[in-house]
Amino acid sequence: MTDTRFDPSKADGRWQRAWDEAGTFTADSASPKPKSFILEMFPYPSGRIHMGHVRNYTMGDVLARYKKMRGHEVLHPMGWDAFGMPAENAAMEKKVHPGAWTRSNIEAMKAQLRRIGFALDWTREFATCDPEYYGHEQSLFIDMYEAGLVYRRQSEVNWDPVDMTVLANEQVIDGKGWRSGAEVEKRKLDQWFLKITDFAGELLDGLAELKDWPDKVRLMQENWIGKSSGLEFSFELSNGDKLPVYSTRPDTIFGASFCAVAADHPLAQQVGASNPAAASFIEECKRGGTTAAELETAEKLGFDTGITAKHPFTGAPLPVLIANFVLMDYGTGAVMGVPGHDQRDFEFATKYELPIVRVVASDPAQAGEPFKGEAEPGDGVIVNSDFLDGMSVEEAKAQVIKRAEDDQWGEGTTVWRLRDWGVSRQRYWGTPIPFIHCDTCGVVPVPKDQLPVTLPDDVDFETPGNPLERHPTWSKTSCPKCGGDARRETDTLDTFTNSSWYFLRFASQPVDAPFDPEEVAKWMPVEHYIGGIEHAILHLLYARFWTRALKHIGKLDVAEPFAALFTQGMVTHETYSLGDGSWLSPDEVRKDGADWTRIEDGAPVSAGRVVKMSKSKKNVVDPDNIIADYGADAVRWFMLSDSPPERDLPWSEAGIEGCGRFVQRLWRLFESLDPTAAGEDKALARKAHQAIVAVAEDIEALSFNKAVARIYELTGTAEKAAPSESRNFAIRTILHLVSPMMPHLAEEVWSRQNESGLIADAVWPEHDPAMLVEDEVTIAVQHKGKLRDTLTAPKGASKEDLEALALASEKVQRSLDGAEIRKVIVVPDRLVNIVT
RNA sequence: GCGGGUGUGGCGGAAUGGUAGACGCCGGGGACUUAAAAUCCCCUGAUCCUAUAGAUCGUGUGGGUUCGAGUCCCACCACCCGCACCA
Questions:
Q1: Long-range contacts of A812-818 (CB under 8 A, 24+ apart)
Q2: Which helix (H) or strand (E) holds A488?
């Protein structure tokens, strides 16, 4: 009996339960099979799964299922990056506990993920807010502290003077606090740091081994780590002090016309102490946020200290200014200003009328050439520079460093742009930093047998600031060393810490340790790691750093956590707005002919740009509704179709309808299989064999859109073919090829065809290499580089034969029109180009 | 400001330096039906045209290399992402 339609509302749940009951996707670390660890970046439990998650996890799912078909033991886990600000915001706005809010979100989102039919090993699920997880994190943090990788120092935060609280960069809007609207100030606090800079060289060199990472991500990390070599030297100041500066361009030292120091540089502080005008300038520099983008786009401001610095070669006095664009965190917090060859210095010098001297020119004759309104940071020949004249930039750099070292007033150094990782957060919903402050003993780690240090449940979100700090009793404790009264650290760890080692916990989860290195070694490194490009630098660098740091302290023997990385694009949707600029969601609008209107009242709606789905623009589509309408397989198919996975995917109603139709089309094709059909259809069989190879290659390259196109093509051909053994082979082939993408449909068909077991446990079909080769090829014939004719020739035909065939073409002769042939280019099996 | 990326029909896109537009969506025409849905078949880059044929143009813009450029090189434009306390 044949059913004319596939009913996902019945089949989806049936097969999801079947996989669960059979433990189909439970990873066995004792298996002798080759291991594949497929991982997608775990979600923050915001409340609902969104289409971006669906796309991300569908890609990983196809890979995981494919690897299983290829005979691998697959680890494909899921968990929750559960600490973070939104839970605290919910606590303030909705009066729910961050933990309760997070837990109920996890429950809802887990149910959603199950409905999409992902091949996940739920036995290894955890949330980073589980004390069983963050307790181990605290233990690792203490290990790092004992290895000298953790330290405390003062660092700036965004301070909201009205709410009396620290703000995240995200909470600073145009330099103002997002709730209070008060002008944000920079304030210094004692904070915890991880010494990622100790690993700068390793993290940089390690990039070279990451062959299966996108070049762009490696390049971004390389630039972020920012290795530079230059000269560190000290200016002698008119007040008798020395001012150490660092420059990557010592070759331009004769072009220096001023020195600039950061507002929080000791020299600036010293000047500010006795000069009220300087003090108020320094205060002014404290206004605004702490982000690089803000600092660098802000108007360049300076304050002349009246102090001068003696140029090391000419002895000329250079004014020393306090400048808002100099960063205390980079180099020495002080620079020599060379306006001719650095754009920031140029703008600063122009504003404060400081000399702009050319010391690099395109050739020596251009030494007097004026600047055209901007600095010239490029390469050239050194001019106006005494003994450096005529040298290249590189030669001059080396010469200046050599002189400085010979005369002992400076030395060549390597400086990194990478800064140590500040992990302190003055917030509740994070991993408590496991330290105790004792007036007698100083900072003392919590003894490991007292871990985890758990968060208190009874917290107050009514008043702003850090609830841990305000808690009446939580921070009160005794010193593990002297037993005296002491105070718990009330800062929590940056949430990036939680995501820096979670993959290790997926691989191995003993009760009494963060992980077992032997178990970890069976699965790590992650074979494919998939997530958004927005994590290209921070998360991926921090995870690489933790892995290396843990190796360094002997906890594990893996240097790089992610063998291959894939960064997928966003899911986008058209936006809709009313005349007043307010946004409407897709289900509030309707298309009337060419125009859009609001369903409710027919008000005209303008359809706007296609952008990332976001709550604020209301252009979101809920996966649950779509699954209810079309089934999980149609949604999965949509996520894989059309757009290359690294690019944005525009969601459309028409698109998902098309996918729903294709699911039914496949169903009819599978139902049309006739086991009694006989006879060979060589062309069709050949296409099927070619598809087996091509789809496998496409999946391995994560080119799911191409795999989808090939399956469409083979499906179209099989549909039109007359019944034959070959056609049955093609149909069974399609069933296997789509099974990682449409697992529910595949299982349903598999069981209806009375196959044993689950298709999820089936193997990838074999291809016959002899069937891949075509007998005939189409040859393009060009005249003067333009296509004039195409002809069919046997594969492997000789150049002479192809040339003769081409010249015999009537169309070619017409195009040639008797012209003299100067040259004929023949590319075997491809084309013939006749040049006249 | 700095760093990274993207740009091909109405839309998403395909194309080891070798037939640009595979495959899908939308649209048009037709078949089936009392009708609709579903399904099936055909057409579908632009312009010209003496129209089953043929010609020209066409991969963000302007140059260049090559027998041949979406692909390689140079310059530019537009848009997107990241910038260390969003996750």
A1: A812/A781, A812/A783, A812/A788, A815/A783, A815/A788, A816/A783
A2: strand A485-488
Distance from residue A568 (CA) to nucleotide B83 (C1'), in Å?
A: 20
Q: How far is the CA of A258 from the C1' of B77 (A)?
A: 37
The spacing between the Cα labelled CA in A112 and the C1' in B19, in angstroms, equals 47
Q: Which nucleotide is nearest to A43 (CA to C1')?
A: B87
Q: Evaluate the CA torsion angle A752, A757, A761, A762 in order and state its sign.
A: negative
CA distance A490 to A498: 17
Q: Which nucleotide lies nearest residue A156, CA to C1'?
A: B85
Please say whether the dihedral angle defined by the alpha carbons of residues A407, A408, A412 and A417, taken in this order, is positive or negative: negative
Predicted complex ipTM: 0.94
Task: Give the nucleotide nearest to A712 (CA→C1').
Answer: B23
User: Which pLDDT value is given to residue A2?
Assistant: 56
Contact between residue A714 and residue A687 where contact means Cβ atoms under 8 Å apart = yes
What is the bridge-based pairing of β-strands A831-835 and A776-783?
parallel
Quote the pLDDT of residue A204: 96
CA–CA distance, A53 with A720 (Å, rounded to integer)? 37
Is the Cβ–Cβ distance between A567 and A558 less than 8 Å? no
Q: Which nucleotide is nearest to A611 (CA to C1')?
A: B80
| Interatomic distance A496 CA / B54 C1' (Å) | 65
Q: Which amino acid is at A402?
A: K
Question: Looking up tokens 């469409």, which residue turns up?
Answer: A712
Q: Which stretches in chain A have pLDDT values below 70?
A: 1-3, 593-594
Q: From the CA of A27, how many Å to the C1' of B9?
A: 47
